[in-house]
Each structure stands twice: as structure tokens, then as C-alpha cells.
Amino acid sequence: MHKYMPHTKEDISAMLDTIGVDSIEALFSDVPKSLKHRDLDMPSAMSEIELLNHFKELASMNTPLKSFMGAGSYDHYTPSIIRHIIERQEFLTAYTPYQPEISQGTLQYIFEYQSMITQLTGMDVSNASMYDGATATAEAMFMACAQRKKKKILISETVNPNIVSVVETYAKYRGIEVIKIKSDNGETSLDDVKANFDKDSAGLIVQSPNVYGIIENYTGYRETLDEYKGMFIINSDPSTLTHLKTPRSWGADIAVGEAQSLGIPLSFGGPYIGYMATLNKYIRKMPGRICGVTKDSEGKRAFVLTLQAREQHIRREKANSNICSNQSLLALFVTVYMSVMGKKGVYEVQKQSKNHAHYMHTMLLKLPQFEEAFPDKPFFKEFTLKTTLDVDVIGKALIEIGYLGPLPFKKFDASKEDLVTFAVTEKRTKSEIDEVVAVLGAL
Amino acid sequence: MYYDKLIFELSQKDRKGYSLPYSEIKDYDLDDVYLRDDCPNLPEVSELDVVRHFTNVSFKNFGIEKGFYPLGSCTMKYNPKINQDIANMPEFAGLHPYQPVETVQGVLKVYYETQKILAEISGLDTYSLNPYAGAHGELVGLMIMKAYHASREDYKRTKIIVPDSAHGTNPASATVAGFETIEVKSNQDGSVSVTDLRKVLSDEVAGIMLTNPNTIGMFEKDILKIAELVHEAGGLLYYDGANLNPILGKVRPGDMGFDIMHINLHKTFSTPHGGGGPGSGPVGVTRALKPFLPKPVIRKAGDIYLIDDHTDESIGQISHFYGNMGVVIKAYAYLLSNGKEHLPEVAKYSTLNANYIKESLKDLYHLPVKGHCKHEFVFDGLEDKSTGVTTLDVAKRLLDYDVHPPTVYFPLLYKESLMIEPVETESKQTIDHFINIMRTIAKEAKDNPELVKNAPHNTVVKRLDEALAARKPIVKYKDLVESQDKE
User: Fold this and answer.
1) pTM
2) Are residues A212 and A304 in the same domain?
């Protein structure tokens, strides 16, 4: 007997009697003998005590650090209530809401999530979530290519290189050409967009704040893209959109990004949640699930998955995306985050992050070891500096005092070995910043 | 009482549910050109408002811990609590993905060991845990297939064979990976017709996507023949891991001849479905295909676990980081809880449960395919259809009895498909209760068909007007307010 399998000997023999066979093995008689497997070569079963001890040992091989690194993964505070809510079995153990009468809970939070994402981005409609910000961006490329019936996409080199990599992989197998747009002083070059954007291009992908942390200025982009009806895809960290101009107001057709910074723990990179939002006129080309309001047979307000004719389970090989499972529970996570932090709290967290980042930036620039990498460019909570120090020495020195230092930019581009990118959140106090600046100053 | 509030409808100006430390650092103002001129309309509520709201919202959901959940093809087994505790440990949940590898050896070991166990269970060489879900795994697997043929400069293989009984993600994934789909008709018992397969095989076929046991829960007896034919034609075999549960420790896809497969950790290895995700769809391959796995790869060199970005033949990157770590760790804990001794029992008891239900109901529900099934099977509606009660009606009536309905109208092989998967964590007593309910509903369908046709009667909402939602999409709170203003 095992605690996850409740079959007693008596149960088994009664069940076999009903079926009319004398052993469970008889139910596998259709499996060719040559295929029957020997014993599995894997660890033996562990009791709960052994299991916990095993994981405590594994945990001791990990060192959580106070983070000054971002690059797509930001160390914001997670209010305690979120875990308690998302671990309610009604949310945690339910399947996709295919039976709406007993899935109103899931459907309702998806609706609330969609409402909040559209508030942040200024767009008309959001889907129920994507795997992560990178795959959401790749799906936005598919959507743009399908909408415009073209097979070429432009992407700025200031987009996080991991996102670019995922876009390139998705594009390669679907036969889409990806053109990289150059940057100028750390920002997408509109001149290079103009030089490359032509009648065969489905659209342009940019990111703001970008991989260096710079807030990009998209004045003039919409007009340039309009010349050949290009789709404008803006990838943003949605938490920054509490302050920054929305993708909608820059003229975006599709807003995408990674919503981890809305309170989701670092979790070694996942589970996170990609978001995607668009304009009403493109709703039928948007991938993923969409929840809408309807009425039941007695006229009560209720929620239901809608416009499902777009989706893979109906359209099969004609579908534009194959996404099925998404990151639903994380949609609940960020919905609860935005509810409990509320209108003012989400704003305040980002305000503190921005202020703390600018303070650190100022203090570091007072040191001879650091100078601006991209002079006069505005940033939000993440910034890139040029350093005379060996970036590996920076990393080691900070780990010794319990910090994860800035991203050594050479991880993304081997030629940029003197650049480091810091990210600062509301969790990093003035005294922590001062401590780190002092240590770096002494190197 | 029906709880009918949205979080936005609880909002009161200036109410708050958060606390933040006082910041000693002065404000820094950005140039107005970068700033939005309005404030996003998020709710203003207290902490208790939020807790109470989502608790009441949760009551409108049905989860595995409430009752029986025999949803076919979804493997709704118990999600152990201890696994959640482990995933929440700050030494795992608090790690940044770009920490130096020497500070994350524990989590990398979890990845490495999980890859090893999955490879052993499936008879393949190794795994990538980067794919986020089953469909994502399919896409990655098909990319690997394409990269393999391309590496041999065999560019004419542009077609993927998919049975018509396959899950909709199979043909959709083929399209997204840039293949054309050839749909082959299944035999009436859901199996692959070897004769038809021979007809469509050619040097333009990149491979075939199959699941075994197949969609109606029957073991594909000709699998060795099928593998031989596909391989002879130069194609590869992809195994859709949706139905892995009943063959754990019994038969291995690699031994059957499959070259690539994905596993749904959120099905076979007990990680919660989360109302539609996060899942995890690890992809496994044979030794020959290992160079094509997505980047980065987690491997071991000596005593050190590494994150390797420099795999030249790789299909490329398909996730920002390393997939859903929080899901992988739960699956690993589940594998260790069961161990080599009990994992094969998962196959045995899920198969026993399914056959027991099938035999106990086949007098009242139409069983199109006789013989022993594996973990699931399909009825084609009621045996007696004279009163016009459909599979949808039966499903809705089950809601009144606090049972989650089976999968309905899939596979597409039968008009009234009702696909039942009882899983090994369910006891005979729970199953007997379900059988009694199903028999009662069959009787109701005969004696009082209107009762069944108008079901559900006890749920928080009744049948929904799906056409209304599609005709006038209201997809956010702002739309709702505007539509109410119009009324």
C-alpha cells in the first residue's frame, strides 16, 4: 500500500471479479511481451520525513541572495495573503474552466485579470495569460504576421537578448524572417527602423524600459509604421506602466511582456506569466483564452470563455497558435497582488523602486570606478553603467556579503565586458545600497 | 447565497490593503514626456476585502479536493500537499535565475535528477525541462524533428502525420512548427490503420505524432509495426505524453520506437493544474537527437551542475529562463515519494479503476469498443437514446451530484463521446458512488428526461448563453460599466 493509492486487497479482488479477469496483469495482456519493462532504475520510495530531509539537504546547496539584478526577474515584495489565496484548493487543483457552471471562480479572476492588464497597458482586450514574456512576444510576432499576411518582422537590438532568441527560434521554424534594428546610445534607432521597414514587413518589436533599463521614446514610430500598415508591438514590464506612458498611447497594436514584477517570487525563472493585450479590431487573431461576461438561463451575470473558434481545439491545423495550458494560477497571483496593493500601492512600490535606483545611480557615479554607459538616457528601476572593475570581481565581492550583484552584460554580449546592469526594487533599503556602494568603492 | 461582486465593485476611494516601509530616499522626477497622464484604475480595498472577495470567488470553483474529477485525458489525480510546501521553501523560491551556478547547485541537482528519472521512465536518453506545457513540448519536439532532418540536409520532409483522434494541439503544433499536417483516419476502435499509414508514408514525411494508449484508452497493438514503417520511410516518431499514466513502469515509449516525447508533469506527476496552468511539458529525446534540445541545457560535469548555453546544434531558446521550476520541483518530490516500488502501481490501479467503471456501466452507456482499456475509455452516450438525452445533458446533471463531469465530445470519433479517466488515487468506494450516480442519471434520462435536459439545478449559475458572450464581447470591467450605462 502507498498513501496515494487506496486500493485494499479486498477492493482489488472485488473489482477484478466485476471485470472478469483474475489479475491486474491480465489487463495488460495486449502489450507485446517484448515490450514489457524490467524494474525501473530510479530511487526507492521515500517517506515524508525522508523526503523533507532530502529537500532540506538540496536547499542547503542553494544560497538566496539580496538582489541588485533584474534582466527580466525582479525582486519585489510578495504580500503574505497571496500564497494563502492561490493555494486554496478551489483555485489550485481545478482544471481549465471548460465546465463554466462549476468554474465561475477561475473565470471571474481571469476577467478581473484582463481588466487590470488593459488598465495598465491602455489596450482594449487582454487574453488570459501566456507562458512568459518571451513566448508572449513570439506569439505577438505570429499574430502580426497572420494579421498582415506577411513573413518578416523587425526587432530592436535593445530588446532583452533572451526574448530576441525566443522570437528567433519561433520565427525560424515558421519561416519568418527576423531583421535586427540597430541602437543609438542605448535606444532603438528610428533611422534604422526607417531604413529597414518596407512593404513586406509585418511589424516592429521594441521593448521599454529596454535591456539596458532605458525608457525609450517612440515619438514618430506610429507614423513610420503606418506607411506600410505595420503592427507596432511594445514589450513592457507592466509594473512600470503605473508611471510610464502606456503602449496604447505610443500607438501600439499589441502590448506584451513579463508580469513577474507584479509580486511573483524570483523562483529561479518560473513559473512567471506572460501577458498579451491588443486592440478590439485584432481580437480574432489574438492567441490564448479570453473570458467574457454573459448571462445564465435565469438571467444571472456569469463568465464564460469566449471567441473559442480562434483556438487550437476547434481550429486544429488552421490555428494560429497552439497554446492550451497557460499560466492561469499566476494570473490569479498578479490579480490578487494588484488588488491588495491597490491603485496607490502598485504605484508606490514602483515609485520607491525608481527613487532607490536613481539614488544608487547617483552614488555609484560619484565613484571613479563607474561612469554612464549611455549619457542622459532616462531609466526607471534598472540602469547600465560602464566600469573599470572586472565584473567578475564585483560579483564575487558582493556575494561574500550576501548580495547578488548587477548583471555582467557580457552574459548577453561578449564584446561588452565593461558594462553592468543594476536593478533596484523597493526591498533594497538606503543602508543596503550604501553598503554595496561602499564595497564597490573599495575595490 | 450567490456571490456576485467584482473586486472593482468593492473599491472605495482612499482605502488601502498594503503597507510599505518609509523611504528615506528623496523623489526623483522623470521627464513628463515619458509619463502617463492618468492613473490605472485598480481597486482600492482593504486586506480583509481582498481575502474575503477571493475566498467567496473560490467557492464558485470545483477542485479535486471537493470531489471525484474523472476528466478524460486530463489525469486529475491528488496533488500532494507536501510538494507545495517544498516548492515554497525560500531556498528554492528565492533564487534569481542568473545567480552564479555555485549558489544554485541544489536546484540544478533537482533538474538533473528529474531529467534522469524521466529518461529512465520513458526509455529515452535525456530531457529538457524548459517547455512550459504539453503543447509547448509538442512544438519543441517538432522543432527538434525539423532540425534533425535539416542536419541531414533532408529539406523535403515538410509533412507530419496526425491521427484524426488526436488532441487539437497536435495539428496546431505542427502548423506552428512550420509543417503541413496529414490527417489519417483512425480505425473505428481508435487505433491507427496500418494500411492507411502505408499509403501516406513517403520521403516528404518528417514524422508522426501518436499517443499510446490512444485517445480511447486502448493500447496500440501494432506499435512496433508502425514504428518500423515510419523509420523505414525515414521519419521519426513523436509520443504525446498525455496518456503516460497507465504505462509507468510497464512499457516505455523509447522501447516502442518513439524518438521524441513530452510529458505533462501536471498530469502524470501530480502537479496541480492551477485552473489551466502553470503546467510543465519536458521534452525527451533519443541519444541521436540530444544535440538539438533547446538552450540552455542543465548538465553535470564532474561534481558540478552546470547551465550550458553553448550547444551549437540546438533548436535555440524556447523559454526566457529554464521553464517552470516551481512545477518541476513538485514533480520531482512526487517521483521520490512513489519511488521505483510504487510508480508501476500507478499504471496498475489507474487501469483497474477504468476497467471497473467501464464494466459496471456498459449496460446503460454505449461502449463502442470492447476489450480491456488502460487508464481511460470512451462511451458513446447513453445506450438508450430514445428520450433525446445527450452527453452534454448527462455531464450537466453530474454537476448536481457534486461530481466533475468526464470530458465530453472528445475524441471526435463518436457523436456523443463521454471520456472517463478515474486515476489511481481514487478508492473503490468513491468509484462505486460515481457508478451509482451514473446509473441514477441513466434512469432519470428514461423516466424524467426533462430533469436531465435542464440540468444543472444546484449550481451557482445555470446553463450559460455562450452565443451572447461572443456576439457582444464584454472582456473587461470598463466594458461592463459602459454596457450597464447604456442599459
Assistant:
1) 0.98
2) yes
